[in-house]
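**User:**
If convenient, please work through this fold.
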Amino acid sequence: MRLAVLGGLLLWPGAVLALSEARWFARRPLADRLRPYAPTAREPRGRGVLSVESFREVVGPLARDAGARLSRLFGVSEELSARLARVHSPHDVTSFRVRQFGAALGGLAVGALIALALRAPLPIAVFVLLGAPLLVFLALEQRVAAQSAARQRRLFLELPVISEQLAMLLTAGYSLGAALNRIAARGQGVCAEDLRRVMGRVRQGLTEAEALREWALLARVDALDRLVPVLALNSEAADLGRLVSDEARSIRADVQREVVETMERRSQAVWVPVTIATLVPGVILLAIPFGQALRLFTSG
């Protein structure tokens, strides 16, 4: 009975929000229905109490603060805003946290229904009720972290090619802004997508050096941190193309070194099952005469 009451209380907010979108339950006033067709009409200052927008405005700050504390509790130190901006997510922090807690609430409802259907004991039911929403919350958090790490990896792998292209364009007489704009317009990878945002920031009033530093702070890739100070010398160095080319070779050497390390780890991992398969029969063969010698020693 308690689980049934708890399930009803959990389903009640979702049912109210779903019914708030139905016309027969929450019919909009005539002024609100005619407002989109009046070009000079002002937007309403407030929204209905039983609406998704009002629910998001109330729950948004609570979900943002609680989500940040919970993610820090489980070892996530990087801000969610940086990760969402890095992966070019269309959601901001508040909307993502609201969706995250909505999914966790759904997991809680599903866990309550499963515990009620199976008539689980009280400790198991409490474990399911606490573990299901936490698992959903951490799964969404891990997905964003995995997307961010994968994007950083792709940026690191694409950076040598982009650096070499920049070096060739600068050597050919292009300015830094023209070279970045050309790569951003014609590229298709992660670097080109980030450079399109960099050029957008330049059109908003930032200099190329400031926009590139902003990109480096957001990307958090060591190779990019070394490349951006070199590109910032465009107004001081006469042979910027040569400097960028040298930095491109250094970045490519880092990529090759990491690839070699990965190959070495995989080659060493191959020998783990071979070693285990060799040691187990050897230990068995050594255990037989050792046991026989102990038996003879104890009997004598």
